[in-house]
Write a structure and sequence with these properties.
The structure holds 3 protein chains of 3 kinds. Chain A is mainly α. Chain A contains 13 helices and 2 strands. Chain B has a domain of 104 residues: 2-Layer Sandwich (Alpha-Beta Plaits), CATH 3.30.70. The chains are: A mainly alpha, B mainly alpha, C alpha+beta.
């Protein structure tokens, strides 16, 4: 009943409907996404502990330490707000906000799974754009700007070095990533993320294995995770671009990092691992695609954490070498492969 | 390439146990040689102060203590250790000539201020004299004192009696000597 | 094989009249007093003709009764022979001045700087006589002199004057009070020289160069020391190093404590290597007293020192891995977990995990408990297996090889010239190990190899350490087989330790290299002078030339592969 009223309203006033849906979606997104980032941090600490032979958080909030992140957030809120002397105040203040805004922009266009209502699969997405793959890819690169803003405005040598390294790394890895996205789009005949998922009868990870590997490596680099976290290498440049940040500003930058990790893994799942496709589970067919989606994202997150814990860090010149000299030519090869296979065999 | 690294961590996660000891609930079992808080056997301590002299940080001070049998020697004093300064080196244990100072396995000695962690003989001593024993000891000492006094009095009386007898014998001799001399003169 | 007698007779024939007193000490040591003006020639002769190419250190003693200062130079050889030459130079107390050996030996630099700032002896010809361990306010007080009255005023915090420098830094200076100057505790006029920051800034030559501080408060350093690097982009042009941030004055403290009370203090020179520090000190005092520990005690000492070596190498390698990976790099945590078992073995004997104070004059403190042999053999089996895994991991990990190969290369001649010892020297193809070249305890009966590598880069240094773990396991197993029963203390150890006046020098193979203790006794129950010659002093001195032209990320890789311990440098 309610559903039919809503669809009628949508037909009559499309612009107002879209606006209201946008507002509601933005509100839900903004509140849910940071909590999801906290859950990702909790997952990371627990999985890291298990891989290293120790427990993760296990005191706050019972044996599983669920409320540990809540305690950390409270601690960050109550810290003193310090702006270093000589820092470029407007840029310093806006850098964490730009960082958080990036995640909102990206999350707005990404589908978060689907539900099956009356046998029809409805994707859960706030803004269903026709070029969403391309848009998401581009919006993710605003991260580099916020890192540079934070690093440059801090008036600190370590932050500046971190900022330079961040820009160098981002430029080197955006190109292979973009080419891989285009290869996927060629095979799927569309740039809309929802349609890319629906076009994956066989996963693109199997159809374009080279592209999968390149995109995974480029994604780890973009996110700034080990073994590519030179911008915040604790041993050389203290904390990189967020050296001078403390309190809630640091909290925003820190959670932004994990937000982007979550969104990046979702992107990997959507583009290469079949999104929410999977056999329908009989009893709970309403949210069966969601369950498949959730499991795949979880596996990708655990794999990211696993890689972080096991590998050493590259030096910055080795990172840019890898990007320009190895990944770029290989992604061209992948593009050719995608053209051949996609156009002749699909 | 880097796969050995990944395999190693995965193996640890699957087949390894967590090594964290959940501390306040589970305490480690320490070896016998462990150097923790001191234990003083107060019945053997002779109050020589060798431990106080050898301590590199000057943590040991000798203080009087009522439950350490002061009746033996009224000036006997026992060690008081300041754990804010002690570094648990064990030199005091090695140097004690009466072998009465040892170290136990206790290591949790936190306190709210500096005076709380100065452990006097009442905190570190074992074998302290209980009230009953002290009362008994005092009773014994009193009895011994009385016995001594009585014996001294008896001895003094005996001595006096002996002296009087000797004097009487002497006078008797002298008297008899006079009598004899008088008789001879007659 | 050259003996000390040969060297002495050669010296006497080459320089007639310069050798004033000479004595052949135990264990191939040559003690000689040389006339002050001929010391440089004598050392040059010894270096060129008799292969004395290793400058071990220098110690300065204040003989206030005779009105003299004595500087003892310690020379040894990198494996050509086993003689140690201890050449003494005397200089009068009111105008002390000794010729500097920096022209002959590059690494004499820091030893002479330290003697200058502590005793006030001027070294003629030294290129940069600046303070090393002390801060600028204490220059000119010469703290190690016997008539130093201390810094008596405790109101320094209130008297501090705040100044803001031109760059906006706030600095504090503490002017001396009248009472201090009158008492002679502080000189009215300090010697003039450029401060550390001024010396750094003289080196900046371009617009794009800047100085990056990696210490004293930094995530990388194993202890506080100042490492400033002059960078141009991501390349290091020059490095500056300053130590002295945790100078505790251990050597002066030991002059005011009896010999026995000094044992726990030597623990704290380097808390990871506390058993070998104890051993070096007790060995030197045993030589002064003329006693020797019984066999069982020597075996126990060897077992515990090798166990300590295993745990120190595990921690050192693990800590180094956190510097090139992140702090959550898993093999570091696995090494720490293995190290716990080794520490439990040591704890079951000594009773403590780090500051053991276990070795005594003439023996050891406790005997081995029951079941020690089985427990240790199990632990060693586990350590062997795990270290094998780690070695395989590092050989096959390509990121590790990229970061470590060819980084911070020390060639063989360079390593000898810079005066390093221990694993970095052995990784540059020089088999110099105190257990082989100056055998102490019962190492001459043990069968082990001295591990060397040819390349001299950071990877070789780490490999030498991991291989040494295997050798240590082998030595411990031999000891556990051969250990006899018997007493653990020598019979004739006096209750009050008052050695006859004399000097002794004893070297051990510390976990990081060659450690030596030089003890001077004047007949009372407190030592007249104790000098701890640590191995990490030479590493720090050798670090700035090694860091030129590398990336910033390599600075931590090189500094970490040296496995430094700042506590030992600053004493």
């Amino acid at each position: 009943m309610v559903l039919s009223a809503i669809t009628e309203f949508a037909a009559q006033e499309p612009k107002l409907y879209a606006f209201i849906i946008g507002l509601v979606g933005a509100a839900i997104l903004a509140s849910v996404i940071n909590v999801a980032a906290m859950a990702v941090v909790w997952l990371e600490r627990k999985v890291m502990g298990d891989l290293q032979g120790r427990y993760g958080p296990n005191r706050v909030g019972g044996r599983w330490g669920i409320l540990q992140l809540g305690a950390d957030a409270v601690k960050l809120f109550t810290k003193e707000d310090v702006i270093p002397r000589g820092a470029d105040k407007p840029v310093y203040v806006w850098a964490p906000i730009v960082a958080s805004a990036t995640t909102m922009l990206v999350a707005g266009a990404m589908p978060f799974g689907a539900v099956i209502i009356d046998g029809k699969e409805i994707p859960l997405v706030v803004a269903n754009m026709d070029i969403s793959a391309f848009y998401v890819e581009a919006a993710l690169s605003i991260m580099a700007i916020s890192a540079f803003m934070a690093g440059w405005s801090s008036n600190n040598k370590y932050s500046m070095l971190g900022a330079f390294r961040g820009i160098a790394r981002m430029i080197a890895y955006e190109v292979p990533m973009g080419i891989c996205v285009i290869s996927v789009a060629i095979m799927a005949h569309s740039l809309n993320l929802v349609e890319i998922v629906q076009a994956q009868d066989i996963w693109f990870a199997i159809a374009q294995p080279l592209g999968f590997v390149i995109f995974a490596i480029a994604l780890i680099t973009d996110l700034g995770r080990m073994p590519f976290d030179q911008t915040e290498a604790e041993e050389e440049i203290i904390a990189g671009y967020n050296t001078e940040y403390s309190g809630i500003r640091f909290g925003l930058l820190y959670f932004q990092e994990y937000n982007v990790m979550l969104l990046g893994s979702i992107l990997l799942v959507l583009l290469y691992l079949g999104g929410w496709n999977g056999p329908v589970i009989p009893v709970i067919s309403f949210i069966s695609p969601m369950i498949w989606f959730f499991m795949k994202v979880l596996i990708v997150l655990v794999a990211l954490i696993w890689v972080r814990v096991s590998l050493l860090r590259f030096r910055i010149d080795q990172v840019t070498d890898l990007g320009w000299k190895i990944l770029l030519p290989l992604s061209m090869v992948n593009l050719a492969w995608a053209v051949v296979v996609g156009l002749y065999f699909a | 390439m880097v796969l050995k690294n990944l395999k190693m961590t995965l193996k640890r996660s699957i087949s390894g146990v967590e090594v964290t000891r959940l501390y306040p609930e589970k305490i480690m079992d320490l070896p016998d040689a462990e150097r923790g808080v001191h234990v003083l056997d107060i019945r053997k301590c002779i109050g020589c102060g060798a431990c106080a002299r050898i301590c590199p940080n000057d943590c040991i001070e000798l203080v009087p203590y009522a439950r350490g049998n002061p009746l033996k020697n009224k000036k006997l004093q026992y060690p008081q250790i300041d754990y804010g300064r002690c570094m648990f080196c064990g030199l005091c244990v090695d140097d004690c000539p009466a072998n009465c100072l040892t170290m136990s396995k206790v290591f949790e000695i936190a306190g709210w201020n500096r005076d709380d962690i100065i452990y006097g003989p009442e905190d570190i001593a074992v074998g302290q004299y209980t009230d009953q024993e002290l009362a008994e000891l005092a009773e014994e000492a009193r009895k011994a004192e009385e016995e001594k006094k009585r014996k001294a009095a008896e001895a003094a009386k005996a001595k006096k009696a002996k002296a009087a007898k000797a004097k009487a014998a002497e006078e008797g001799e002298k008297g008899s000597g006079e009598k004899a001399a008088k008789k001879k003169a007659e | 094989m050259t003996t000390a007698n040969d060297v002495l007779s050669a010296l006497q024939s080459a320089f007639p009249g310069t050798v004033e007193e000479a004595k052949i000490g135990p264990e191939r040591q040559l003690w000689a007093t040389i006339k002050p003006d001929k010391i440089v020639d004598v050392c040059k002769y010894l270096r060129d003709n008799h292969n004395f190419d290793h400058y071990s250190g220098a110690a300065g003693v204040d003989r206030i009764d005779e009105g003299l200062f004595e500087v003892t130079e310690l020379l040894a050889s990198h494996g050509a022979h086993q003689v140690v030459a201890l050449l003494k130079v005397k200089t009068p107390r009111d105008s002390p001045s000794v010729k500097s050996l920096t022209g002959l030996y590059w690494n004499a630099n820091w030893y002479e700087r330290e003697i200058w700032e502590m005793l006030g002896i001027n070294f003629e010809g030294h290129p940069e006589l600046y303070p090393l361990l002390l801060s600028d306010e204490l220059m000119g007080v010469w703290p190690w002199r016997k008539d130093y009255k201390g810094y008596p005023d405790y109101t320094t915090a209130e008297r501090a004057i705040e100044m803001v420098t031109s760059e906006g830094y706030t600095e504090y200076s503490i002017p001396p009070t009248e009472a201090e100057i009158k008492a002679g505790a502080v000189p009215a006029e300090r010697p003039k020289y450029p401060s550390f920051r001024e010396r750094e800034e003289m080196e900046i030559k371009g617009e794009s160069e800047m100085i990056l501080h990696m210490g004293p408060q930094h995530a990388v350093v194993p202890g506080p020391f100042l490492l400033d690097i002059l960078v141009d982009g991501e390349r290091v042009k020059k490095a500056f190093l300053d130590v002295g941030y945790i100078h505790k004055g251990i050597e002066k403290i030991m002059e005011n404590r009896t010999y026995m009370q000094g044992i726990p203090i030597t623990d704290r020179l380097c808390y990871m290597a506390s058993l070998t520090n104890n051993e070096a000190y007790c060995g030197a005092v045993e030589r002064l007293l003329g006693i020797e520990a019984p066999e069982r005690a020597q075996y126990i000492r060897m077992i515990l020192e090798e166990l300590s070596r295993i745990q120190s190498h595990l921690l050192g390698t693990g800590e180094f891995l956190t510097l090139i990976g992140s702090a959550v790099f898993s093999p570091f945590l696995y090494m720490i977990i293995d190290r716990e078992d080794v520490l439990s073995c040591i704890e079951s004997v000594t009773g403590a995990r780090i500051n053991h104070s276990f070795v005594r004059f003439g023996g050891v403190r406790n005997d081995l408990p029951d079941g020690f042999k089985d427990m240790t053999l199990d632990v060693l089996k586990m350590v062997r297996q795990k270290t094998e895994e780690y070695k395989e991991l590092f050989l096959s990990d390509s990121i590790y090889r990229k970061r470590m190969e060819g980084v911070g290369v020390l060639s063989q001649s360079e390593a000898r010239r810079l005066g390093v010892s221990g694993p970095p020297l052995r990784a540059s193809d020089t088999p110099y190990d105190m257990r082989r070249d100056d055998p102490y305890l019962l190492y001459k009966d043990m069968d082990f190899e001295v591990i060397t590598r040819k390349e001299g880069d950071s990877k070789a240094r780490v490999e030498v350490r991991l291989d040494e773990i295997f050798e240590s396991c082998y030595i411990i197993e031999q000891c556990l087989d051969q250990i006899p029963s018997g007493p653990i203390m020598a019979d004739k150890v006096p209750k009050r330790i008052k050695p006859d006046p004399g000097e002794a020098y004893y070297r051990v193979e510390d976990h990081r290299g060659e450690m030596g203790f030089f003890v001077v006794s004047d007949g009372s129950d407190k030592p007249a002078k104790v000098k701890a010659r640590g191995p990490v002093y030479a590493y720090f001195q050798a670090l700035p030339p090694l860091l030129e032209g590398v990336y910033i990320a390599d600075v931590v890789a090189i500094a970490g592969s040296m496995d430094a311990c700042t506590s030992e440098v600053d004493r």
